[in-house]
Amino acid sequence: MNLAQISMRFWTATMPAISVMAPVLAILLAVSGCILRWNAVSSFFRRFVLRRSRYDYRRIFQEYLERFNAITDRRELYPALLAAACRIIDTSGASLVIRDSKDRFQTKASCGLRPFGFDLDNFTPFLSWIETHRRVVTRKDFVSDKSVRAAKNDGLRYCVQFNSEACVPLFVNDRLYGVINLGERRKGSYDSEKKDLLKLLAVQFATAIHNASLYQALLRQNMELQEAARLKTQLLANLSHELRTPLSAIIGYNSILTEELHTRLNEDQRVAFDRIQANSQKLLNLIETVLLLNSLDAGELQITLSSFDVRETMRRVARQFAAAARQRGLALSVEGDATALWLTSDEQKLERILWALIDNAVKFTPDGSIALSSRLSADRSMVEIGVRDTGVGIQNADIAQLIDDATPAPRARGLGLGLRMASRMTDFLGGRLRVRSEAGSGTHFTVAVPVFAVDPHGSGIHS
């Protein structure tokens, strides 16, 4: 039997079997094709026919993104963002490239991806292209999308770790802050639906990074302010020591000279000595006021409680202004009888309050009188000390500004530190400072302090 006859017998025997198997093979091939294209078909059917997404956006944003606002350290935030992106997108790995203040890009975190083995400075033009076009771009786009042809070469060199990669730009204040690089081993993994999700995630990730950056900036600023406050406190302490020492000597020697030369001084000389004494004391009190405000601001002020006659304290402070009042032709008086009115508080700080109020009254009373008064409140829990003058008065709109902000009113003389100190010191003693005034009709300050003050740093009376 020759070769032709053998071939004829083979095909005669197998043709019936082939004719039977052909439809089966066709069906298997069709099913295989459908299975291979199922992802694309199901995605199209779900998105455009059923109008559904395969991602549960509400769960994603609640489960993953809300907790990012609680992370204030960017070193912890970066890995958390990448880990969340890998879980949400179901991708193999991710890395984060951040742009520093010098416009250089550096890899700051990675998840399942090796850090780039090349110098990112060589890809500055490519990253600038991403910043300009503000879009999520994939490796597949660089191969098949003509709209990204200008960045094709750099893009393919940048996306070298996986078969399918995506570059997701992060913008903060309309400036490219960084790029998240996502990698997947399956080709063509980043379809349009996944790109839409990545765009939303990019906005949320950038917001979380921006908030963390603001928080850290505030921390740095707060530390700088604390250091500045510490230096200010130290400077004022040193300055006060340098100023108080010679001032105390001037005040002391002036008092000695005044007493020794009292019988030999004429009126002009006596006035000159009184002015030296008054102005030296005023300068010393100004230094003390600045230091007290500084201690209040720093939270370092201590209270020393003692029991004392508040009316005697008032008379003692008033005597310090007797010479200044005489020079201006003012009548300075302490009203009430000689009956003691006892108070448990910090006497030295109450003296500072009264000194500031009387000094203000003398300064803004061109003629007339200044009167001090004291009484118990109706419920006998507070001692109310009044300082009333017949001076120029204060506009109602300026009262809060003077006391709270220490801002001098129009045409006012001085820095306004005294009234601010008086207000804050009264609060420190547990009391309150009230003001009644009208422009041109004088001013009435009332200092109300508890009869029995409480030490904010403890309790009891300290001497």
Tell me what the structure shows:
With 463 residues, the chain is of the alpha+beta class. Among the domains are: 57-219, 2-Layer Sandwich (Beta-Lactamase), CATH 3.30.450; 302-450, Histidine kinase-like ATPase, C-terminal domain (Heat Shock Protein 90, 2-Layer Sandwich), CATH 3.30.565. The protein has 14 helices and 12 strands. It has helices at 3-36, 38-49, 57-65, 74-89, 124-133, 139-144, 152-158, 192-260, 267-298, 310-320, 322-327, 347-363, 396-405, 417-428; strands at residues 93-99, 105-111, 137-138, 164-172, 175-184, 306-309, 330-334, 342-345, 368-376, 382-389, 432-437, 443-450. Strands 2-1-5-4-3 form a 5-stranded antiparallel β-sheet, sandwiched between helices. A 5-stranded mixed β-sheet has the order 7-9-10-12-11. Strands 6-8 form a two-stranded antiparallel ribbon. Strand 9 and strand 10 (382-389) form a beta hairpin. The longest helix has 69 residues, at 192-260. The chain is elongated, with a radius of gyration of 42 Å. It starts with a helix and ends in a 13-residue tail after the last strand.
